[in-house]
Endonuclease (Tenacibaculum platacis), 96 residues
Amino acid sequence: MKKYFIYILKCSDDSYYVGVTSDLLRRIKEHESGKYHKSYTFKRRPVQLVYFEEIENVKLAISREKQIKKWSRFKKEALIKNEFDELPKLSKKNFK
C-alpha cells in the first residue's frame, strides 16, 4: 500500500511550511535545493524538517494537510512537540 507523508518544515525566517508528498526524502531535498523557484520555501532556505506523519490514503493525507495549514502557529508548535492534549485548547475559536 502506498504511503503519504504530511510534513512541517521550519524555514529560515522562522515560519512554517506544511506539505504532503508520497516521497518524503525526495521532497525535502527539493525544498533544500530550491528546485521550484516559485515555492514558498525557495527564499526561506535553509529549511528543517520538524514534523511528519504517515497516512495510507491520499484523500485523507490531503485533507490532513489542509487542516494543519489552517492552524495557528501555536497549534502547529504543539503538534511538533507532541503536546496532543494542548491541541483542543489552541483552537482558533478559543482565541476569539
User: Anything to note?
Assistant: Helices lie at 24-33, 58-70, 73-80. DSSP finds three helices and three strands in the chain.
